[in-house]
Amino acid sequence: MMNDVLGATLKIAGAGLQAQSTRLRVVAENLANADSTATAKGGDPYRRKTVSFDSVMDRGVGAELVQVKQIGRDRSDFQLAYDPSHPAADDKGYVKKPNVQPLVEMMDMREAGRAFEASMNVIEQSRAMMTRVVDLLRS
Amino acid sequence: MDLGKIGFFQLAGTRLDYLAQRQKLVAENVVNANTPDYQARDLKPFDSVMDGIRPVETARTSGLHLASTRSTAGFREEGRAALWESTPSGNAVSLEQEMIKGSETRDAFALTTSLFQRNVQMLRMAWKNG
C-alpha cells in the first residue's frame, strides 16, 4: 500500500514535468517568432501564446495532477515600427511587430526550469524512499 | 509470529505510511506550484498517533537503581511553519518550503526503515541465542 502511494508520487511528478515542458515549448515558440511579421500589407504579425495550468483530480492516481488548461493568445497591442520598405507596412509606413517581450519570456523560461527541477527532486526523493523499503528485504 | 503485533513494528509501519502519504502531498504541491488559486496542503503532525503511546520506562526494582532522566511526557513534534508566500494569481506554494518538507520526509523515512532493520536484527539475535 505504501509503495502504491510512492508510485503515485512518481506519476504526480511526471504530470508536473510534462506540464512544465509544454510551457517551455510555448516559450520557445514565442522567442523563435519574436520577429515574425505578416507578409501581406497591413497584416497582423505573430501573436504571443500563453499557457495556463489547472489542477484536476485523477481518480486512478487519487491525487490532484496538474495539466495544461489551455494555450491561449496574448491579446495585448502589437508594437509599431516605422519601416515603409517592409512588405507588411501599412499606408503610413508602419509595420506591426509581435507582442513578444524577450525579457518576459526569459523569466517564464527560468520559472518553468525551476519548477521542472523541483519535480525532478521529488522523483529522486521518492525513489530513495522506495529503495529503502526494498532494502528491508536484504537485512 | 506476527511482527505487526509487536508495538514497535506496528508504529514503524504507521509512520512509514504517514511519510509516504506526506511525500505524495509534497509532490502534488510541487507540480501545482504554478496553478492559479492552488493552496499548498500538508498532513497533520504525526503526534496525533504518538499521543496514544507512552515512552517505555525501565522498572526500578531496587532503591539503588537510577531513575530515568528522560521525561515521561509524550513526544511532540514542533508545529508546522505556515505558508511562506502567496502570489498575485492566488497560488500559495513555495517550492523552497516543499523541498525542505520533501527532504525531511525522506530522512525520517530512512530513519524509520533503519530502526525497523535494527529491530529485526535484535529479534534474530534473540532467536539464535535462545
TrEMBL record, chain A:
It holds the Pfam family Flg_bbr_C. GO terms for biological process: bacterial-type flagellum-dependent swarming motility. InterPro entries: Flag_bb_rod_N, Flagellar_basal_body_rod_CS, Flg_bb/hook_C_dom, FlgC. Keywords: Bacterial flagellum, Cell projection, Cilium, Flagellum. It is found in: Bacterial flagellum basal body. The keyword ATP-binding does not apply. Residues 93-135 form the Flagellar basal-body/hook protein C-terminal domain. It comes from the Bacteria. Residues 11-38 form the Flagellar basal body rod protein N-terminal domain. GO terms for cellular component: bacterial-type flagellum basal body, rod. The basal body constitutes a major portion of the flagellar organelle and consists of four rings (L,P,S, and M) mounted on a central rod. The rod consists of about 26 subunits of FlgG in the distal portion, and FlgB, FlgC and FlgF are thought to build up the proximal portion of the rod with about 6 subunits each. NCBIfam families: FlgC (TIGR01395). Belongs to the flagella basal body rod proteins family. This is Flagellar basal-body rod protein FlgC. It comes from Azospirillum palustre.
TrEMBL record, chain B:
Keywords: Cell projection, Cilium, Flagellum. This is Flagellar biosynthesis protein FlgG.
